[in-house]
Amino acid sequence: MSVYVTVGSTGFDDLVMAVSTRPFLQSLAKRGFRKLCVQYGSSEDVFLPPRTESGTYGIAIESFDYTSSPQRFIEQADLVICHAGTGSILEALHSRKPAIVVVNRRLMDNHQSEIAQELSARGYVIATEASGLAGAVADGAYSKLVPYPNADPQPIGEILDEETSF
User: Which pairs with CB-CB distance under 8 Å and at least 24 residues apart come from 53-57?
Assistant: First the structure.
């Protein structure tokens, strides 16, 4: 099983540091994960996973700064861990992958927290801070999330047809 971690178009040092730790890697291994793919953005300097197989608990680690096709990595993952940006959350939800959403408390206007908490309250995602990430993986609640409903584009199409017909 594999995990995809994304920080989106910027960086998120706390999240990238959290996924570099032995407790996080141990939590993944205990849950049966064998591959970790990390998109670290501008937080490359703080991505310092252990260098030995015993240090990573046998988890193969792939990492890169940015990708033009994040959906490819999401589709290959069994679990998505992302920052609480709306775009990243929606990509995970629309792919119907379980998602752990990590809120960046260092942001000034923390709309991310509000979005993450609301989606968590509805059972669509697990919301946590970077410090709680290993625990969120360890407890396995992500496996019991409610699938996000698919949008029905039909009503929008009918409205556009009605409004634009001559």
Answer: 55/22, 55/25, 56/25, 57/22, 57/25, 57/26, 57/28, 57/29
Q: Cα Rg for the chain, rounded, in angstroms? A: 17
* Pairing between β-strand 35-39 and β-strand 2-6 as defined by DSSP bridges: parallel
Instruction: Determine if residue 32 is left, alpha or beta; phi over 0 gives left, psi from -120 to 50 gives alpha, anything else beta.
Output: left
Q: How far apart are the first and last CA of the chain?
A: 54
Structure letter (DSSP) for residue 154:
H
Burial class (CB in 10 A: 0-12, 13-18, 19+), 144: exposed
Dihedral, 79, 85, 87, 93 alpha carbons, nearest 10: 30
* 54: three-class secondary structure by DSSP: coil
- DSSP annotation of 130: G
Read off the pLDDT of residues 1-43 as tens digits, 9 standing for 90 and up. Answer: 999 999 988 899 999 999 999 999 999 999 999 999 999 999 9
**Whole-model pTM above 0.85?**
yes
